[in-house]
Every structure is written in C-alpha cells, then in structure tokens.
Amino acid sequence: MRAVACGLEVLHYCHMGQTITVRLTKQLAAWLAATAERTGLSQGRIVREQLEKAKASGRGRPFMRLAGSIRGPRDLSSRKGFSRP
After folding, report:
1. Residue 10 is inside which H or E element, if any?
2. Which of 53, 50, 55 lies closest to 39, judged by CA?
3. CB contact at 8 A, 3 and 11
4. Do 72 and 79 touch, CB atoms closer than 8 A?
5. Would you say 31 and 20 are in contact if contact means Cβ atoms under 8 Å apart?
6. DSSP annotation of 71
7. Which domains does the chain have, with CATH numbers?
8. Is the overall model pTM greater than 0.85, yes or no?
9. What is the Cβ-side half-sphere exposure of residue 57, based on CA atoms within 13 angstroms?
C-alpha cells in the first residue's frame, strides 16, 4: 500500500487481487446498504473490514476444541442400552 500526503489530503492506493460474488438475503443486503449509507463507506469496504475482523479473531471452528476430549467407546452403539438387536 502506498500513501501520498499533500496538504490535508491523503491518497491510498491498494491493489485488490481477488473478486468474489456473494448472494445475500434481503435482510442482510438491506443492512449492508443502510450501514454503507450511514457510515459513508462502500459496501465492499464494510465486507472487507468484517472479513479482517473474523480473520483476526482466530475463531474458525470453536467446536473443534472439544475434539478428542470425550471419553468412552468410539461406537456409542456398543454402550449398554444402545446396542442394536
């Protein structure tokens, strides 16, 4: 990214290399449009910022913290009361 300062104006140049298409529900599209209107940011910038927040949080699959922590037989049908006839 390159920034050029001239007086009070700052020009930011950032090359975006990937384009994606996302289908949104009517409610989500309305929220995005309203948020862009209210904040003065483009819809693309709002989406990019939210993706960056999700990336920084590092919570991709929180349920995986439980993997391997449950004790017992691998096949629950082998437990008493769960066996098949």
Report:
1. strand 9-13
2. 50
3. yes
4. yes
5. no
6. -
7. 18-58 (1.10.1220)
8. no
9. 10
The candidate with the shortest Cα–Cα distance to 32, out of 45, 20, 19, 21, is 45
Amino acid (one-letter) located at 34 = A
d(CA 85, CA 83): 7
Give me the tens of pLDDT residue by residue for the chain, a chain 85 residues long.
445 444 556 666 667 778 888 898 999 999 999 999 999 999 999 999 998 888 887 766 666 666 666 666 666 666 566 555 5
The DSSP string of 12-64 is EE------------HHHHHHHHHHHHHH---HHHHHHHHHHHHHHHT-S-GGG
Integer angstrom CA distances of residue 58 from 51, 55, 64: 11, 6, 13
Nearest Cα residue to 28 out of 20, 36, 16: 36
